[in-house]
Amino acid sequence: MPIGLCRPWLVGAAAALSAYVAGAQPALGQAPTRPVEEAEEPFDSADALGRARREQALFERWRARALPRAWGSSGGPCDERVGRFCTWYDEGDWTPEPESIEVVARRAELISYLDSVHALVPGDDWILGQRVWYRAEAGRWDAAARVARGCVRAARWWCAALEGLALHGLGRFEEAEEAFAVALAAMEPERALRWRIPRRALDGGARDQVERRPDADARLEWMWALADPLYLVPGNDRKTAHYARWTVSTLRERARNPYAIPWGRDLEELTVRHGWEIGWERQSSVGVGTEDGVVGHKHPEGRDFMPSGRALEDPVGSGPDALRPDRSRPRSLYAPEYAPVLLPMDGQVAVFPRAESLAVVATHFLPEDTTRHRGGPDDRPWMQPGDASGQPGRAGLYLVPVPGPYEGSPRAAPRARGVERVDALEGALVVEVPAGTWVMSVESWSPPDRRAGRLRRGLRYDAVPPDVLTISDLLLVRGGGGDPATLEAAAVRALPRAELGPADSVAVVWELGGLGRAPETVSYALSVERSDRSLLRRLGEGVGLVGRERPLSLEWEEPGPVTPGTVLRAVDLALPTLNAGSYRVHLEVRVSGRGPVDTWTTFRAR
C-alpha cells in the first residue's frame, strides 16, 4: 500500500509510503564515529541531547540517499487520501532487498552513540525510544527488550510501552498485553483514551459501540476477541500490534524520518492503521529539477482483521463471511509474523443440537498459497521458517460466547472453549458447548510454512425441550465404514472439504433428537440434485425444451430408538459418475403425529 505527498504512494496490502518535498535539497551526513565521552567541551545535557538528535537526523538523511533505486511511478488515482498522502491498495510484486553492510554498520554506530548519550542523560524519553527502535529495526528484538527493561529514570508509562513493543516483536503476546496494560494505567487519561479506541481502524457502527454504549468497555474487549487472528496462538497479537504501533508513532514524532517531512497526524494515522515500514526504496523522479522520493513499503500480506459494526453486534446475522479477513478496501492492515499468509479455509461445519447443548464438528486443512507469490523460488523474507522450522503443525476448534445484553455490571473478556491437535494439519475436531450464541473459529497452522487457514463465523442454537424432534446438519464422511458409534468416530471419517472425485465413496451422517419416549416409526426421504444449473437451462426445462435432470432419491423407514436421547445415523450414497459441478443433498424426516424436519448440505463434484 503506497502513500505520498505531492506524488507519493502507499502500496495497498504491500503498503508503501513516499513523500516528495518541493525544493528540498539533499542533506549529506555521516554516521557518528566519536563517542560522547570524548567531547572536548564541558558536559551539557541539553547539548548532548541536541547532538544525539543531529546524529539521528544525519543517519536518516544518509540512509535515504543510500537506498536501492526503484524506477517508474505507481501512478493512477488514489484509493484513499490521508492528509498529505495518497494511498493505493495493491499488493504488487515488491520484496525487500537485503540491507547493505554499510547501512547495518552505520546503524550500529548510531546505536552505540545513543547508548553513550543515554548513559549521561538516563532520564530522557526520546533517547530511550530511539535506542529501542533502532535495535528493533535491525531485528534485534531481544536487545530492544533488554534496553526497555533497563529503563529506570524515564516516565513509567513510556518504559512499559517500549517493553510491550519489544515483547510484541518477540512474539510474546501475552506478556506484551500485560506491559501495555501497565502503560495505559500509568499514562495521562487523554492519551490512554486515544490509544485504547482504534477509531480510525473501525467503521462508524463499530466506533459507536466501543465509544458510546453503556457497556463500551466490554464491547471493546469483544471487538479485540473477534480481531484476534488465531486463537491457536497465545495472546492477542492484533491487540498488541495496535499498541505497538502507537508506541512507534510516539517515538518517531520528534525524530527525523526518511520522508524528510515533519511527523503529523497523517503519518500517525497510517502508522497506527497499517503498521510501520518493513523496507525502503528511492523512487526516481522523471521531471527536470525534481528530487527523488523515498518509498517506505509496509507488509505485502496485510489483511483487515477488525470486525465491522454489524459483525460486532450480530456475528450470526451478519453472514458467513463477516469475520473473514479483508484485503479489498481495508480500514487497517496487519500480517501476523507467525503466519503472514492467512487464508480462508472453507471446510465442513456441522451443528448437532442436543436439547440443552450443541456439538460442533468442523474439518480443517492447510489451504494452498493462493497469493500472487505462489510457485517458483520464494524470496519473501517474511515467509522463511526461521526459528519456527522445527515446530509442528497444529489445528484447533474454538467457540467464543457472544456477550449478552448489558446488565449494568462489568463483564470479563469472553473466553474461548476449544480443543487443539498437534501434528495434524488435516482432519476434524468436535466441541460441545451449552446452547446459546457463539462465534466458532476452526484453524490450521503450519509454523515452518508461515501459513495458516481459518474459518470463523457465528452460530446460534436455542435450547429446546427434550421431547421436541430435532435434526442436525449433514456431515459428509468417507463411505464404506458402516454406522459410526459416536460423533467423534464419525468425525474421524469426515471429508476435509465438501468435494468428491470420480472414484470417491461418500456417506452422510446426521443425528436425531427428541425420540425414544414412545414407540415411533421414522420415515426418511433423501435426495441428491444438481444445484448450479444455469438460468438458460432452467428456462429450457420450464418450457420443456430441455429435459430436467432427475434427482437421485432414496426413501426408507425404520423404528425409532427405544430410550430417550439422540440417535446417530449414517447412510452410504451409491452415486453414479457425476458431472463436475455443485450438488445439494437434502434429507427430510417424518414421524407420525409430528411435523417434518429437514436438513441439507452441498458438495462439489470434480
Strand-helix topology:
Layout: E1 2-3, E2 9-10, E3 16-19, H1 45-66, E4 69-70, E5 80-82, E6 85-87, H2 101-120, H3 125-137, H4 141-149, H5 156-169, H6 173-186, H7 189-196, H8 204-211, H9 216-227, H10 237-252, H11 265-274, E7 279-283, E8 293-297, H12 309-313, E9 341-344, E10 349-354, E11 357-364, E12 394-401, E13 417-422, E14 427-434, E15 436-446, E16 451-461, E17 470-471, E18 475-478, H13 487-492, E19 499-500, E20 506-515, E21 521-530, H14 535-543, E22 552-559, E23 565-573, E24 581-591, E25 597-605
Parallel strand pairs: 1-3, 4-7, 9-16, 19-25
Antiparallel strand pairs: 1-2, 3-8, 5-6, 7-8, 10-11, 11-14, 12-13, 12-15, 15-16, 17-20, 18-20, 20-23, 21-22, 21-24, 24-25
Helix pairs in contact: 1-2, 2-3, 3-4, 3-5, 4-5, 5-6, 5-10, 6-10, 8-9, 10-11
What would you note in describing this structure?
A hairpin with a 4-residue loop joins β15 (436-446) and β16. The chain is built from 14 helices and 25 strands. The chain folds into three domains: 2-297, no CATH class; 342-372 and 384-404 and 411-463, Immunoglobulin-like (Sandwich), CATH 2.60.40.10; 466-606, Immunoglobulin-like (Sandwich). The protein is elongated, with a radius of gyration of 29 Å. The chain has helices at 45-66, 101-120, 125-137, 141-149, 156-169, 173-186, 189-196, 204-211, 216-227, 237-252, 265-274, 309-313, 487-492, 535-543; strands spanning 2-3, 9-10, 16-19, 69-70, 80-82, 85-87, 279-283, 293-297, 341-344, 349-354, 357-364, 394-401, 417-422, 427-434, 436-446, 451-461, 470-471, 475-478, 499-500, 506-515, 521-530, 552-559, 565-573, 581-591, 597-605. α4 runs antiparallel to α5, α5 (156-169) runs antiparallel to α6 (173-186) and α10 runs antiparallel to α11. The strands form six sheets. The chain has a six-stranded mixed beta sheet, with no helix packed on it. Strands 9-16-15-12-13 form a five-stranded mixed beta sheet, with no helix packed on it. It has a five-stranded mixed beta sheet with strand order 19-25-24-21-22, with no helix packed on it.
